[in-house]
Amino acid sequence: MAILDILNYPDPRLHTIAKPVKEVSAAIKRLIDDMAETMYAAPGIGLAATQVNQHIQLIVIDTSETKDDLLVLINPKITEKSGQQDYEEGCLSVPGVYESVTRAESIAVVALNKNGQEFTIRVEGLLSVCIQHEMDHLLGKVFVDYLSPLKRNRIKTKMVKLQRDR
Ligand code: K1U
Ligand code: ZN
């Protein structure tokens, strides 16, 4: 397994739209293992393939306390949405920045698992927030895109300076 490099905002590659996975091949399974290792090491509770410069519809998530409940979503689709919640979100591609975003409270998602089998989950709370945040990455959207242009530009400037001074 390997720790992968995570793209940092405002890298333009974070705005790439991901393509569906055609087959859950051995290479995709290896990428899942590497993404999980990268997410746990960061540490984070989610990671989209876009963030490791792989522009395919693949997400790993683990919101459990014990970090032993990996959820793999391949070609995910939201089929139901209801309610509204605000959550102070973070992002491994925008380190050190936490901002409130409004999203659906409950969602139903249909996706493929690591074995290529279709499944449906109904979730709410943090897991629902995290899935919506990661699915945005697959659409080339970063959570700061929900903020005002003023806030977003301040974050962009801070991130550029951080990367320049590293
Ligand atoms: O970059 C990412 O997409 C991962 C991101 C997921 C996320 C967090 C909070 C709300 C929505 C989506 C993170 O994991 S940021 C780091 C983080 O939240 C965290 C890190 C360690 C322990 C607990 C949380
Ligand atoms: Zn993110």
Can you characterise this structure?
The protein is of the alpha+beta class and 166 residues long. The protein has a single domain (12-165), classed as Peptide Deformylase. The chain is built from three helices and seven strands. The strands form two sheets. It has a five-stranded antiparallel β-sheet. A two-stranded antiparallel ribbon has the order 4-5. Strand 6 and strand 7 (118-124) form a beta hairpin. The longest helix is centred in the C-terminal third of the chain and has 17 residues, at 149-165. The chain starts with 25 loop residues before the first helix and ends with a helix. The relative contact order is 0.19. The model has no long low-confidence stretch (mean pLDDT 98). The structure holds ligand K1U and zinc ion. Ligand K1U binds at residues 43-47, 51, 87, 89-93, 129-130, 133-134. Zinc ion binds at residues 91-93, 133, 137.
What does the secondary structure layout of this molecule look like, with pairings?
Layout: H1 26-41, E1 46-48, E2 58-61, E3 71-82, E4 85-89, E5 99-103, E6 106-112, E7 118-124, H2 125-138, H3 149-165
Antiparallel strand pairs: 1-2, 2-3, 3-6, 4-5, 6-7
The chain binds ligand K1U and zinc ion.
CATH topology: Peptide Deformylase
Gross morphology? globular
Query: How many domains in all?
Result: 1
**Bound ions, cofactors and other small molecules, one mention each:** ligand K1U, zinc ion
Count of β-strands: 7
Terminal Cα span:
27 Å
What is the level 1 CATH name? Answer: Alpha Beta
CATH architecture: Alpha-Beta Complex
Residue stretches low in confidence (pLDDT < 50, at least 5 long) are none
The neighbouring-strand order within the major sheet is 1-2-3-6-7
Please identify the oligomeric state.
Answer: single chain
Q: Nearest-angstrom radius of gyration?
A: 15 Å
Structural class: alpha+beta
